[in-house]
Amino acid sequence: MKRNVLRLCLCSLCIVLLSGFAAPVRKDRMYYERRGEIVWEVPMDHKMIAFTFDDGPNPKTTNLILDLLKEYDAKATFFVVGKRVDRYPEVVEREVKEGHEVANHTYNHVYFSQNVSSALMEKEIMDAQKQISKITGETSAWLRPPGGYYNDRLIHVAQNHGFKVVLWSWHQDTKDWRKPGVSFIVNKVLKNARNGDIVLMHDHVSNSMQTVEALKLILPELKKRGFQFVTISELINEKRKEVFGHPKK
């Protein structure tokens, strides 16, 4: 009897000790998606797709992109850099006037790696937000950290200021900033297009018109396939309607 009690005590002690060395929670994409803290894409029944453009505005390429979006009755989300908004406010004004969404991509395009403090994250985000609000008169709901860098500190800072972090569909990263060639960009989007995709493009790439030329081929083809081009907000609200029967107010 005493032996059995001793064995039971030893087993209990082992369980307690082992629990102290349990593996830490793996904070991968699934972890943040399940918690609703980061959006990569919004799978849905409707044929909707969200084009997003980072790093602008650029007075030349952004305006050419806006011309194409207008031609194909397309709406998009522009993740703007605050210092460029300050430099080219008229381009952002046009984005808003034509029904597009303007979102936050920090003020100086700072990469939020592990050694970046929460204070700097907050300053970068809020300085950009001030510039956006000055032009649009609104507060952006979406934040895209440059390079897609994120961690718990960024999530905390974003949530404290009412932002949701939005990245992009992994299969819709066009790599257009690398200037991979028009055909590469076109094939990347068209071969992988799915309902609820978030496409990553850039409207400010030095000495490159590849994104503009690619859009001339991508937009008409996707429209032919029946896709509707929407903003991030429209994409997420449509998903809410599918799930709950009504959009969020």
TrEMBL record:
MF terms (GO), sorted A to Z: hydrolase activity, acting on carbon-nitrogen (but not peptide) bonds; metal ion binding
Any one Gene Ontology cellular component term annotated for this protein: membrane
Coiled-coil annotated residue ranges, if any: none
Keywords for this protein: Hydrolase, Metal-binding, Signal
A biological-process GO annotation: carbohydrate metabolic process
A Pfam family per the record: Polysacc_deac_1
Domain NodB homology: 47-230
Record Gene3D superfamilies: Glycoside hydrolase/deacetylase
Domain of life: Bacteria
InterPro entries, alphabetized: Glyco_hydro/deAcase_b/a-brl, NODB_dom, Polysacc_deacetylase_ArnD
Keyword Iron: no
SUPFAM superfamilies: Glycoside hydrolase/deacetylase (SSF88713)
Signal peptide start and end residues: 1-22
Keyword Signal assigned: yes
Name this protein carries in UniProt: Polysaccharide deacetylase family sporulation protein PdaB
